[in-house]
Automatic annotation (TrEMBL), chain A:
Binding site for Mg(2+): N39, T42, G43
MF GO annotations: ferrous iron transmembrane transporter activity; GTP binding; metal ion binding
Pfam family, one: FeoB_Cyto
Topology with respect to the bilayer: Multi-pass membrane protein
Protein name: Ferrous iron transport protein B
Compartments in which it is found: Cell inner membrane
Transmembrane segments: 301-321, 333-352, 364-384, 411-431, 438-464, 470-490, 532-549, 623-642, 654-676
UniProtKB keywords: Cell inner membrane, Cell membrane, GTP-binding, Ion transport, Iron, Iron transport, Magnesium, Membrane, Metal-binding, Nucleotide-binding, Transmembrane, Transmembrane helix, Transport
Organism of this sequence: Levilinea saccharolytica
InterPro entries linked to this entry: Fe2_transport_prot-B, Fe2_transport_prot_B_C, FeoB_Cyto, FeoB_GTPase, G_FEOB_dom, Gate_dom, P-loop_NTPase
GO cellular component: plasma membrane
FeoB-type G domain ranges (all copies): 21-183
UniProtKB/TrEMBL annotation, chain B:
Organism: Levilinea saccharolytica
GO molecular function: transition metal ion binding
The protein, known as: Fe2+ transport system protein A
Pfam families: FeoA
All copies of domain Ferrous iron transporter FeoA-like, residue ranges: 9-80
């Protein structure tokens, strides 16, 4: 923009210019290598958060190049900028309102025709654009010859060939950014035009809005958006235009409802000219690696077999690596630190010891022991995503997820819930729409996680002997049945009519980039520790206080009081106050219910406890207890990430209330049936 | 919309390996805008890569592979291209 060329030529301002950070936005369609470039440029100097009020990741980083400081913002990957989705609105609003000094548009040299579509929209916005022509290696491999200089001349924008995975072209990219900042490149961008048959309409609309388009919107852009039927711009212009002018615009739009396609076709015509000029492609129609792999991975039968094998592998790995690591962390780190603290606190009052050792260290222990499993899941998810497999899993599962009014994309996060509900909730953001994300988040706690399955495995044998395996299987099926039922009901009521169409890119398979995956794991884990970690700690202290106060023993504590108070409700399900207390304690961490029973019955958490319980309670009560355990309010960590991912206490409370109501209703039903059946 | 001539058909009815020219995209502003951003525009050429009796289709359009639900594919009208 002009202000930068002014400051660059004035020596007095040069100093100030060097200290001021330059804002660069990275834009591009998904899978163009935007994140690879972002990671390459910023390394660990990045901060991951969410865009204000949205479940869309916001990544910002900084770097210094030639003594100049840059702030880099990774805009969400979008195919266009039509404001149809949260991502599109974020990307477009950022460019319009934050006015970055330069926008780097990442496009794919191996598939220019599709990837230039976003650029066609970007060039009409008021920010200087530099084109990063990425994936030059792939283009070479496929014998597609792209001539960057020709593209640059035809576009009127700087075009820098790159291979982000090999860090090729970064220096040149920065040179182009700096030239652009200084206004030195001397190019004039060629903009796409609406298809010929609608030029007159555009002229009419342009004339009607002239002088009324508010800053920072360019007039021609706003006129085009009106023809495209953009809701945001249409509403604003209707409010701003005098009635007579709005009437003219309205008439024109009514007469040309197909104008959107004319605009889109105009963009593809512009792209076609560019591609014809700059790309030489001798081989077409060859069967690529992706197509060959998809014959298996996307096959309606073999695709499912492959998916099952991969998921089996994930869980095998989780238990082979994650479980021992968890135990090691628990004994070596948490155990030792607790030991030191205990030694240091011998002379402190008892309540301080309890607070620190049980409350705080208990919470820290939960957070830390969650980590190995989370890291493994994040790594596997990152790997599958980076390789390009994620879209295939979504593809083969789509027809089953359809039943619940959901997309295949929600399958993987939900499935991960078997390991742990936390990554399931955190993975919900892959879903297309807010409605689909929320539905995934709400259903995730109904997937029985390993901790709940552990409680099941511990108690079922004592109560049901040889039938334990069948009972366990039946209960897991029951909770999955409940999940499907809730999904079907919710998608037809709360989220009625909000299922968006299934249209999804199937990206090419890639060799995974370990740096990208490593950074992803690092950031996700950090975000879990920061956000969920603190919440868990607070919960942990609160639960400890409830269990320890006022006297110090569980039996006479407030938690026990709470259990007695809730006993009438518990009795619907054949649960006395002790089992009710165990359920309440399971809110802190699911495996806590066993530990609590251990304290209440004064025996260790071994087979002894299970048979003691089986001796006291009827099988009907046992069955009801296990049912409620599987469906009960999610654990504190899950609630914390539900809050984080839904961004709303309203939905968090809804989730808690929903699981509470479901678990009580199903528990009471199972108990009644069991008693009736003579158990 | 229903096919009007012999060569016009729904995208859903193209078999794997068949080519077509897009005639219209069906209705719904949001869906149309998502389809165009992925390369579907009237006049654009496409190849069906996969179409089993159930589950979404895979279509190559403007050099990109796109999965599209059966409902959505039923709304897209194409002209079959023989080759
Ligand atoms: N061969 C090759 N692969 C690349 C290049 N840049 C990125 N990739 C890979 O393309 C995939 C998508 O990259 P990513 O940065 O996640 O894309 P984004 O969706 O635009 O953020 C990853 O598997 C990358 O490793 C490149 O220049 N050459
Ligand atoms: Mg990315």
């Amino acid at each position: 923009m002009s202000c930068h060329s002014d400051t660059a030529t004035s020596p007095a301002l040069d100093v100030e210019n060097a200290q001021r950070t330059t804002l660069i936005a990275l834009a591009g369609q998904p899978n163009m290598g935007k994140s690879t470039l972002f990671n390459l440029l910023t390394g660990l100097n990045q901060h991951v958060g969410n865009w204000a009020g949205k479940t869309v990741e916001r990544r910002e980083g900084s770097l210094t190049h030639d003594g100049q400081r840059f702030t880099l913002v990774d805009l969400p990957g979008t195919y266009s900028l039509t404001a149809n989705s949260a991502e599109e609105r974020i990307a477009r609003d950022f460019i319009l309102h934050e006015q970055p000094d330069v926008v780097i548009a990442v496009v794919n040299a191996a598939n220019l025709e599709r990837s230039l579509y976003l650029l066609a929209e970007l060039v009409s916005l008021p920010a200087p654009v530099v084109v990063a022509l990425n994936m030059m290696d792939v283009a070479r491999q496929e014998n597609i010859l792209v001539e960057p200089e020709v593209l640059e001349a035809a576009l009127g924008l700087p075009v820098i060939p790159m291979t982000a995975t090999r860090a090729e072209g970064v220096r040149e990219l920065f040179a182009a950014v700096q030239e652009t900042l200084a206004g030195r490149r001397g190019l004039v961008a060629r903009l796409p035009e609406i298809r010929e048959d609608h030029r007159e309409s555009l002229r009419v609309v342009l004339e009607a809005v002239q002088g009324y388009v508010p800053a920072p919107y360019p007039t021609a852009w706003a006129a085009t958006k009106l023809l495209e039927g953009d809701e945001e711009i249409t509403q604003q212009m209707r409010a701003l235009l005098p009635a007579e002018r709005w009437e003219r615009v309205h008439q024109e739009l009514m007469a040309h409802e197909d104008a959107f396609l004319a605009v889109a076709t105009g963009r593809y015509e512009w792209i076609g000219r560019l591609v014809r000029a700059a790309v030489v492609r001798p081989r077409v129609g060859q069967i690529g690696l992706t197509e060959r792999l998809d014959r298996w991975a996307a096959h309606p039968f073999w695709g499912l077999v492959i998916l099952a094998a991969i998921l089996g592998g994930v869980f095998w790995m989780t238990f082979q690596i994650g479980a021992p690591l968890q135990e090691w962390l628990d004994t070596q780190i948490i155990g030792r630190v607790s030991g030191w603290l205990a030694a240091a606190l011998v002379s402190a009052p008892l309540w301080v010891q309890g607070l620190v050792l049980d409350g705080v260290m208990g919470g820290v222990g939960t957070v830390v022991t969650f980590l190995p499993i989370l890291v493994i899941f994040f790594a596997v998810l990152g790997l599958l995503e980076d390789v390009g497999y994620m879209a295939r899993a979504a593809y083969v599962m789509d027809r089953f997820m359809h039943l619940m009014g959901m997309h295949g994309k929600s399958f993987l996060p939900l499935f991960l819930g078997f390991g742990c509900n936390v990554p399931a909730v955190m993975g919900a953001r892959v879903a297309d729409s807010r409605a689909a994300q929320l539905l995934t988040i709400l259903l995730a706690p109904l997937v029985p996680c390993t901790a709940r399955l552990g409680v099941l495995a511990f108690l079922a044998p004592a109560f049901f002997g040889a039938a334990a395996a069948w009972v366990s299987w039946g209960l897991v099926m029951l909770s999955l049945g409940v999940l499907v039922l809730v999904g079907v009901v919710m998608s037809r009521t709360v989220f009625r009519g909000q299922r968006s169409a299934f249209v999804m890119e199937m990206p090419l398979y890639h060799i995974p980039n370990l740096r990208t995956i490593g950074l992803l794991v690092w950031q996700r884990s950090l975000s879990f520790l920061e956000k969920a970690g603190t919440t868990i700690l607070v919960f942990s202290v609160v639960v400890w206080a409830l269990a320890a106060l006022p006297g110090g023993d569980l039996e006479n504590s407030w938690l026990a009081g709470l259990g007695r108070w809730f006993e009438p409700v518990g009795l619907w399900m054949g649960l006395d106050w002790r089992l009710t207390v165990a359920l309440l304690a399971s809110f802190f961490a699911k495996e806590n219910s066993i530990a609590t029973l251990g304290v209440l019955f004064g025996s260790a958490e071994d087979a002894g406890l299970a048979s003691t319980l089986a001796g006291i309670y009827s099988p009907a009560s046992g069955l009801a207890f296990l049912t409620v355990s599987l469906l009960f309010i999610p654990c504190a960590a899950t609630v914390a990430v539900i809050r984080q991912e839904s961004g709303s206490w309203h939905w968090t409370l809804f989730s808690v209330a929903l699981t509470l109501a479901i678990s009580l209703a199903v528990g009471a039903g199972v108990y009644a049936l069991a008693v009736w059946g003579g158990l | 919309m229903q096919p009007t001539t012999l060569n016009q058909t729904r995208l859903l009815d193209l078999q794997a390996g068949e080519r077509g020219l897009v005639i219209s995209l069906g209705s719904g502003k949001q869906l149309i805008s998502r389809l165009t951003a992925l390369g579907f525009t009237p006049g654009g050429e496409l190849v069906v890569n996969q179409n089993y009796a159930h589950g979404p289709l895979i279509v190559t359009v403007r050099g990109g592979r796109v999965a599209i639900g059966r409902g959505e594919a039923a709304a897209i009208l194409v002209e079959r291209r023989d080759e």
